[in-house]
Structure to design on (322 residues):
């Protein structure tokens, strides 16, 4: 793992033993107000990995923002034993201001990497993150939340073709570890192309602040930093993580009103009743049953569904992470 004597973000140099808040100017609102992305850098005097902890790449995913914010507030990184932390609580400031996953041009930053300095607003954000943040780190945790009224059980996702990623996922030790392939033009795939490893923490639902999801994220980040030798203490988990290597979405066969029974974190049996779809007029009730034993990774909270909408994310349990 590389060790930098000099870490530079947006032209600001941070030497070992220094802490610095860096505000990078990204763009302007139509009103002329400048948009800045703050990054908080903490450097031990002793060499070690440079770790990115980031939230808010999708601006409506509040749990991830709160995880990073709360660690900053608690002074978690004030006395690192080694290495460096780059903490960015809100990467998508535009989305955060507009309660939106995307930036104002309607594009998703996490589908725009590596970006371009003269491209769309999303591409410009992605370019900034690629050139000034990803280029400086060794590994990272990107904190996310379920979108589109979908709730995710607290989990870490890793790419199967990145051996370092499963190591970091196990060190994080969340309730659930999920194998998840790279998505084209995502932050995680761009980092991998640059020789970096980023794992993704998912938990809860967008536009909702959920304490147990936030606490799981904080505890896992501390366990990872302890594993890397950067912290001396971290909370222990009482149960082993569930490791899932394959999953599928159960989708609505008819449009109507969805009434879910199974929730994220449940183990379900073959043929178990998972919920119903009804019409508004009492003319039909469609039962939704499991076709196999599975673990519920995520569930839909939107009561009105169309045919084909995702209802439940079901994982096949292969083994327990050790």
């Amino acid at each position: 793992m590389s060790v930098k004597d000099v870490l530079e973000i947006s032209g600001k140099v941070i030497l070992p033993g220094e802490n610095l808040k860096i505000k990078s100017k990204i763009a302007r609102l139509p009103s002329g107000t400048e948009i800045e992305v703050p990054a908080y850098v903490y450097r031990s005097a002793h060499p070690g990995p440079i770790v990115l902890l980031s939230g808010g790449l999708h601006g409506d995913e509040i749990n991830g923002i709160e995880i990073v914010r709360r660690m900053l507030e608690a002074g978690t990184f004030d006395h690192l034993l080694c290495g460096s932390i780059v903490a960015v609580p809100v990467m998508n400031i535009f989305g955060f201001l507009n309660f939106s996953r995307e930036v104002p041009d309607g594009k998703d930053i996490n589908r725009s990497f590596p970006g371009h300095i003269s491209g769309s607003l999303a591409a410009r954000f992605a370019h900034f993150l690629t050139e000034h943040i990803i280029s400086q780190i060794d590994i990272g945790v990107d904190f996310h939340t379920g979108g589109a009224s979908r709730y995710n059980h607290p989990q870490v996702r890793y790419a199967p073709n990145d051996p370092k990623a499963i190591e970091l996922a196990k060190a994080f030790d969340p309730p659930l570890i999920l194998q998840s392939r790279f998505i084209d033009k995502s932050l995680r795939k761009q980092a991998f192309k640059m020789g970096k490893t980023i794992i993704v923490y998912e938990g809860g639902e967008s536009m909702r602040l959920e304490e147990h999801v936030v606490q799981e994220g904080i505890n896992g980040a501390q366990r990872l930093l302890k594993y890397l030798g950067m912290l001396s203490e971290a909370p222990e988990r009482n149960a082993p993580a569930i490791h899932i290597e394959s999953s599928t979405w159960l989708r609505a066969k008819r449009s109507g009103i969805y009434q879910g029974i199974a929730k994220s974190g449940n183990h379900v049996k073959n043929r178990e009743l998972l919920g119903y779809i009804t019409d508004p007029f009492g003319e039909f009730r469609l039962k939704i049953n499991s076709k196999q034993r599975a673990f519920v990774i995520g569930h839909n909270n939107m009561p009105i569904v169309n045919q084909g909408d995702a209802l439940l994310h079901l994982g096949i349990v292969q083994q327990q992470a050790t």
